[in-house]
Amino acid sequence: MEPAIVFDHVSKRYPYYQNVTAGLKSFVFNLHKNLALMKQKSFLVLNDISFEVGKGETFGIVGRNGSGKSTLLSLMAGVMRQDEGSARTLGRISSLLELGAGFHPDLSGIENIILHGILMGHTKAEMLEKVDRIVEFSELGDFIYQPLRTYSSGMHVRLGFSVAVHIDPEILLIDEALAVGDLNFQEKCLHKMQEFRDSGTTIVIVSHDLTAIIRLCDKVMWIDNGKVMECGKPKDVVIHYIRSLDQQAVMTISRDELEEAEPEAEEAAAETAAAGDAGSMVPEAPGPDAGTPEEPEAEVQEDVRIDTWWDSPALIIECEALISGNPAITFYEFLKRQFAIGRLEKGLMICNQLKGVEVVFVINNICKAFDVIDAESDVRKVIAGGHAFQQNTYEIFVCVDLLHRIQDLDQFLEKINRSLKSNGIVIALEYIGPAGYKRPESDNLIANMLGRLLRDSGADASPDWLFEHGAEPGVSGAGEEDQPAYDASVSSELVIPSLTKRFEVLAVRCFGGPLYDLLLERVIREDGLNGEKGSKFVKTVVQYEQALIKEKMLENNYAMILCRKMADE
C-alpha cells in the first residue's frame, strides 16, 4: 500500500518556561527542587516515533491525556515541526485539531466558512458552492449568521467539523471531534467518516471514544509518554490499552474471595485472577503473558482445554445476530436500545466460556468495571456452592455457560440476588437444552444428514477437510473424548424457572445450538473457522439449523436470558 503519512524516528521537545511565581521565600524554601527544574531546558513530548499510514487507511491514535497525541497530529498538519527525524505527508490535508482553530470570533459562521476554505487553498467561488451543504450538515440554523463569539463550544466544533469534511481533503486529521453534539449529530459524524473511508480518503483520528475507534479504524496506535506502545489491529490494541489504565482497568478478581482468603495469600490470589484471558463477545486467543512466573497457580495452568464452538468468532457473531434480531445491531447496542442498559458502575461476571468478554462490556460503556471469576478452579468452586459474594454491591451480573452446571441453583441465585443492588440486571448466556446432555437420536441423524448434504453439494462454504479420515458429525464422528464434560448435576431444565422465582424476566432470546456441538465443534477444532471460507460455512449451518428449528425438527439449546431484580417487598 502506498503511504500517505510517514514518520521516521520523530522526536519533539517543548521548552521549560522558568517562572518564580510564589515569591522569593517559597523559592528559597524549595531551593533544591527549583534549581533542579531550572537546569531542565526542555522536556521530551515525542520520543523516537516511527509509523506509516497507508493511502485510504483509517488510522486511530489512543493514549492517556498528555501522552503526545495532539502533538503528533500537529506535526502531521504542519502546524509545528519535529526536532529530530522526518515527518512526511502526501496529499491535501484538512484538520480539526482544536476548538475554533482558524476561525475569527468577530466574523459570522458564513464568513468563517469562506475564510477557512480560502486559507485551505480553495477559491471564494468554490466555497460559495459548498456553503449550503456545510450549513445543512452543521445544523446551526440561523446561528450561522451570528458572530462566532456568541457560539457555545459545541457549536464551534460542529462548524469546524462541518467545514473540515466538506473541503474534499485527501488526508483528514481529527482530534476529539467525534463526540460533539447530541447522539443524532454524533451518528451523522460517524456516517460521514464511513463515507470518507469508502471514498479512499486517509483519516487519522485521535479519540477517547474507544467504541468509535474500533468501529472506524483499520489500524490503531497506542502511545504513552511519547512512545509507541503498540500498533496493530484495533480491538487488540484497545484491549491492551484499557488493561493498562489503573482508573479504567477491568477488575479481574473477586473481592469476596480475597476476604475469605488468608491475608498472606491475597497478593497471590490477585495475580492469579488477573491472569485471565482478555477477549470479547468474539473471543481472543490467550496471550503468552498470562500469569506470573513466580506464581504457582499460573504455572500449573489447569485451564488447558479443548476448543469448543464458543471459541469460534464467526459463530459468536451469528449468535449475536440471533439475539439482537438484526445482523447490523451488535449485542451491546441491543442492550442499550431495547433495555437502556449502560453506564453502570460495577458488575460481577462469571465465565465458563467467552473468558475476557468483560473488556468489551467496558469498551461499549455497558459497565465501567467488573469483578471477574473465570479461572477453572474458581468456577468449579462457584459450581460447588463454595463462593460467597458481597451483598448490595453490583448493578449487573453476567454469566456465560454457567447456571445449568450449578449444583444448588436456587441457593446460588439467592446469593446473586442479595449481591445485586436495587433494579440490578442479570444477563445469562446459557445452555437450556436436554438435561444431562442426553441428545435425542434424531439430532444426531439430522447432523449427519446435513454434513453429508454440505459435502456432496460441493458448495464453497463447506471446508474440503470436513470429513477427513472418514469422520462424520454426530455419533459416528465424535468419540467419548469429544463429548462435553458436563457434570452429572446438570440443571438446564431448571434454569429459566429458577430465574423466574427471584427475578423479573425481561427477555429470552434463543440462539440455536443443536448443531453447534454435533456438527461444528470438530470442524472448529480442526481450523478455528476464522477465515472467510469458515465464516461462510458457519453461516450456512446456522441458517439450516434455524430453518429446522422453525419446522420443529430441532429445538433451541442456548438462550440469552435477561432479568431484573424484583423490588424488595
At a glance:
The chain has 569 residues and is an alpha/beta fold.
CATH domain fold name of the domain at 255-435 and 484-565: Rossmann fold
- What structural class do helix, strand and pairing data support? alpha/beta
Please report the number of helical segments: 21
- Note poorly predicted spans: 246-280, 283-306, 458-490
Classify the beta-strand content into a percent band: 15-25%
Bin the helical content.
25-40%
CATH architectural label of the domain at 255-435 and 484-565:
3-Layer(aba) Sandwich
What's the CATH class label of the domain at 255-435 and 484-565?
Alpha Beta
> Which term fits the overall shape?
globular
Strand count, sense and closure of the main sheet?
6 strands, mixed
List keywords for this structure.
569 residues; alpha/beta; Rossmann fold; six-stranded mixed sheet
Task: Give the topology.
Elements: E1 3-15, H1 24-29, H2 31-39, E2 42-54, E3 58-62, H3 69-77, E4 84-89, E5 93-96, H4 109-119, H5 124-138, H6 153-164, E6 171-175, H7 183-199, E7 202-206, H8 210-216, E8 219-224, E9 227-232, H9 234-244, H10 255-260, H11 266-274, H12 296-300, H13 313-324, H14 331-339, E10 344-351, H15 358-363, E11 367-373, H16 376-384, E12 394-400, H17 409-419, E13 420-431, H18 441-457, H19 495-502, E14 503-510, H20 514-527, H21 532-550, E15 558-565
Parallel strand pairs: 3-7, 3-8, 5-6, 6-7, 10-11, 10-12, 12-13
Antiparallel strand pairs: 1-2, 1-4, 8-9, 13-15, 14-15
